[in-house]
Specification:
By secondary structure, this protein is mainly beta. Strands 4-3-2-1-5-9-8 form a seven-stranded antiparallel β-sheet, with no helix packed on it. Strands 7-6-10 form a three-stranded antiparallel β-sheet, with no helix packed on it. It contains no helices and ten strands. It starts with 5 loop residues before the first strand and ends in a 30-residue tail after the last strand. It is elongated, with a radius of gyration of 24 Å.
C-alpha cells in the first residue's frame, strides 16, 4: 500500500451504509472516530462504534467484499499470525497480522485478507466492532528448534570400533 499519501477506502458501517472515499494514513485514525474524504470531497467523520470495517481497495465497487473469501481454505502461506475475528453482528473474518506486537494499534486491528488477488488489500477492524479475536496459528515463526548433529559423537565409555585417523599436526 505504499506509494501515495492517500488510499482508496470503502467504509462499511453497522447500519448497512457503504461509503467510498480517500484516506490519509496519517489522519484516518482519530482518537474517537475515523476521518476521510468521500468521493465528492466532503469530510466524513464516523465514530468507531458505527464502523464495521475499513477496506483498503484497489478500485471502488458496490461492495468491497462481494464474493471475496472471508476465511482461508487451508493453512496460509504468508508469514504472521493467522487470526479469526468475530464481529458484533456475527460476521467472521480471517486474516494475517504481523507477528510484531509493536505494530498493534490500540484503536483496532489491520489484517491481510485470505485472497491476495481480490480487490481488498487490507481490512481495518475497530476494537468497538470486535467480539473476539482468536489466534489460529503462527506462520513462518522465526523460532527454530536447535539442530542435532547428524552423527553424534560416541560416549566416552563406549568402545570405538572404527578408530579415527590421527590428525596431522
Amino acid at each position: 500500500m505504499a506509494g501515495s499519501t492517500t488510499k482508496k477506502v470503502s467504509v462499511r458501517c453497522f447500519d448497512e451504509r457503504l461509503i467510498h472515499g480517500y484516506a490519509s494514513l496519517q489522519t484516518l485514525l482519530r482518537p474517537n472516530n475515523i476521518e476521510f474524504l468521500d468521493r465528492t470531497a466532503q469530510l466524513q467523520v464516523i465514530p468507531y462504534e458505527e464502523v464495521r470495517t475499513v477496506s483498503f481497495v484497489r478500485d471502488f465497487q458496490n461492495d468491497p467484499v462481494p464474493n471475496q473469501r472471508k476465511t482461508f481454505g487451508a493453512r496460509p502461506k504468508s508469514d504472521g499470525l493467522w487470526v479469526r475475528l468475530n464481529l458484533r453482528d456475527g460476521e467472521i473474518l480471517e486474516g494475517i497480522i504481523p507477528n510484531d506486537l509493536l505494530q498493534l494499534n490500540e484503536r483496532g486491528i489491520t489484517v491481510t485478507p485470505p485472497d491476495p488477488n481480490a480487490n481488498t488489500q487490507r481490512i481495518f477492524v475497530p476494537r468497538a466492532a470486535l467480539l473476539t479475536l482468536k489466534v489460529l496459528g503462527v506462520i513462518g515463526s522465526p523460532v527454530r528448534r536447535p539442530t542435532r548433529p547428524r552423527h553424534p559423537l560416541p560416549a566416552q565409555d563406549q568402545i570405538d570400533f572404527f578408530p579415527r585417523p590421527a590428525s596431522a599436526e
